[in-house]
Write a structure and sequence with these properties.
This protein is an alpha+beta fold. The protein is built from three helices and four strands; from the N terminus they run E-E-E-E-H-H-H. Strands 1-4 form a two-stranded antiparallel ribbon. Helix 1 runs antiparallel to helix 2. The longest helix has 37 residues.
């Protein structure tokens, strides 16, 4: 695993057991319907980039807070808040792309419908 990758574990409950190997040689074993949780590990290649983007957005938001504390013009504050919101949206796009390329492709390969449904729920919450 490179310093740009991050392992992300998911626990899913399934019943009969299956073992899958993806194109990168990762082995996934899970059961269907027995009520036991089995881990699925996925690599994220953009973790460092996401953390850097979040750090910059946090710093930007802190400067906006100082602007408000200093009584700066409301239009300037609104413009800077729009920039922070845009930075967060762009960070979410990086996370979504990474998730689709790694976790979701694994979910499709292994028939993990629950992960697909979880992504749909997350997208709905993010977009609202």
């Amino acid at each position: 695993m490179t310093d740009h990758e991050h392992q992300h574990d998911h626990l899913h409950t399934h019943a009969h057991e299956h073992t899958h190997t993806d194109a990168e040689g990762h082995v996934y074993t899970h059961s269907h319907g027995d009520g036991e949780a089995h881990p699925h590990t996925h690599s994220h290649t953009q973790t460092k980039a996401v953390l850097n983007r979040l750090s910059r957005a946090i710093g930007h938001l802190e400067s906006v807070k100082r602007m408000v504390e200093d009584g700066r013009d409301c239009t300037e504050v609104l413009i800077q808040l729009a920039a922070v919101r845009s930075a967060l949206s762009n960070t979410a796009k990086v996370i979504l792309k990474d998730h689709i390329e790694h976790c979701l492709s694994d979910a499709v390969t292994t028939g993990d419908i629950e992960s697909i449904e979880e992504l749909n729920t997350a997208i709905e919450k993010f977009m609202s």
